[in-house]
Amino acid sequence: MVLLMRPHPRLIILIPLCAVWLASCADHAWEVRTYPLGEKVNLGHLTYLGIETQWFPVFGEGPSTRAPQNRFLVVRVSITNGGTSDAAVPNFIVEDNSGHRFAELTDGSGVQDWIGALRTLAPADTLVGNAVFDVPTGHYTLHILDEDSQHEALLDLPLNFQHGPLDSPSLDLRNGPAPGKK
């Protein structure tokens, strides 16, 4: 004789609920977005603002001249720590349209307002400075990471040959670009 057991009605509801709960605990894929220069990017506790790019054939003059293998790409950025503890700011990488990646240079000799290679921000601190790359001339995207290097975003770096101060509206580095003049 075969005995058939009917499942308890609560168990029928509980099993799908457990499956939904477990699925919600899974690590969701992070969407990597691309932002234009001048737009704030929040990653973890860090807020990035890409300010401008400049190209240089050399740094310095005379015997202290520093020449790149290609050209120097200088990216001016602002980074703010919105967390309640110190945050490490990961180094940057730029990527060209063909997928070639270039690491940020760790030697800032001759770079005005060099941002430094090892960066830690205290809570509510903002760091403004220049990151430098030795790259062939072209269009790039800047890879930026949160303080734990878990989430990534991209800053679009349009190709321009600006050399020297940028003639643009003033920037409030806490709030982004100033609104256009009327």
Question: Briefly, what is this?
Answer:
By secondary structure, this protein is mainly beta. The chain has one helix and 13 strands; from the N terminus they run H-E-E-E-E-E-E-E-E-E-E-E-E-E. The strands form four sheets. A five-stranded mixed sheet has the order 1-11-10-6-7, with no helix packed on it.
Give your account of this protein's structure.
The protein is mainly beta and 182 residues long. It has a single domain, classed as Immunoglobulin-like, CATH 2.60.40.1240. Helix content is 9%, strand content 37%. The protein has one helix and 13 strands, in the order αβββββββββββββ. It has one helix at residues 9-25, and strands spanning 34-36, 40-43, 46-56, 71-81, 87-89, 93-96, 101-103, 119-121, 126-135, 140-145, 152-157, 171-172, 176-177. Strands 1-11-10-6-7 form a five-stranded mixed sheet, with no helix packed on it. It has a four-stranded antiparallel sheet with strand order 2-3-4-9, with no helix packed on it. A hairpin with a 4-residue loop joins β6 and β7. It is globular, with a radius of gyration of 24 Å. Residues 164-182 have low confidence and may be disordered.
